[in-house]
Amino acid sequence: MSQQEPRILTTHVGSLPRPTRLLDLMKANIEGTDNRAELENCIRESVIESVQQQLADGIDIVTDGEMSKVGFFAYVRDRISGFEPRPGAGYAAFEAEVEAFPEYYSEYFGKAMLGGNLVPFVPVVCTGPVSYHGVAQLKRDLGNLAEALKITPAHSAFVPSVAPTGVGSNAFYENEGDYLSAIAEALRVEYKAIIDAGFTLQIDDPFLPDLFADRHLTSVQIRQKATDYVTILNHALRGIPQEKIRYHTCYSINEGPRIHDVPFIEFVRYMLDLNVSDYSFEAGNVRHEHEYHIWEQVKLPEGKRLIPGVICHASNTVEHPELIAERLIRFAERVGRDNVLAGADCGFSSQATYKTEVHPTIVREKFRALRAGADIASKKLWRR
């Protein structure tokens, strides 16, 4: 299929395994080594290499692989003031899963999800006025991606940024509304800079489905907080062209039983109220693959597109291109072929770690399968 013919575009969620040489330099820097110049040069080279690999493997809409970030939300600790770490607070996610499978998750958190991270997971608490002071790091990231795209042009590129609800907890502002408003205004600096640099902004937000799994809230409280989440994010995005924003959410669990995941139908309508154009979500893992049927009940608003995950970030099995094509066609038959892009369930290295769940060589093979499956689906959809 030629580039001029209509086809399903491929993309992913953003984070990719960091090269070992970059991890070594990051680790040394965290431990106090003065290697800033060498580290910055390695970040730049890693971004260029990542973009080249994405394009070689058939990805149309690329990103920098989040090479400079130690974690998909932990990075904001260095960019937003007003927070203090609270070691020992623990990792409170997936309570029902952990209670149901304590032996599994004890090993999983210790060795897989958190055990190999460059920095330990440490919750942060807001203890002072919030402001954004990460302009230099942000400018570096945007410049590195721009440089990579000059060397190896792509269809387009996106840059992930965390949602306001994912930064930390509040111990300073009078109420939760004031706190989230302050976070939203701070992150808006990052959001606008990404757009001004010519990239698409991706909002990373696993926190919406987490809310619906919170057993400490009543159903009424959950619905109210979900509405508040949507309102605050839309406020942070005000004035930014909707067509330049995509939204990613997931169930916040990597490899696991997942029997306590929230059904997509519970929060999909809140998601669709966000002022964005594209929605990236988990659809390839076996606990949620059947949920494509919700698009027979829920109407996708005009001008919006879906980026269903059709390759899984938590399995080293490479999906067959024919299966990927089938998955894409299911969505296309329900929302229209022009309203579907091919994506991944979640990031392949949301934390900078020496041990990603999917081996880096297999990530690349999954991307090649994604491209092949999207091509098969495109031929079938546009032949009809």
Number of distinct helices = 11
- Span between termini: 15 Å
Poorly predicted residue ranges: none
Order of helices and strands: HHEEHHEHEEHEHHEHEEHEH
Shape: globular
Secondary-structure-derived class: alpha/beta
Residue share in helix? 40-55%
Overall mean pLDDT: 93
Radius of gyration: 20 Å
Q: Provide the spatial order of strands within the biggest beta sheet.
A: 1-4-6-7-8-9-10
Strand content: 5-15%
Sheet of most strands: 7 strands, parallel
What is the tally of beta strands? Answer: 10
Describe this structure in words.
This protein is α/β, with parallel strands linked by helices and 384 residues long. 41% of the residues lie in helices and 12% in strands. The chain contains eleven helices and ten strands. Helix 5 packs parallel to helix 6.
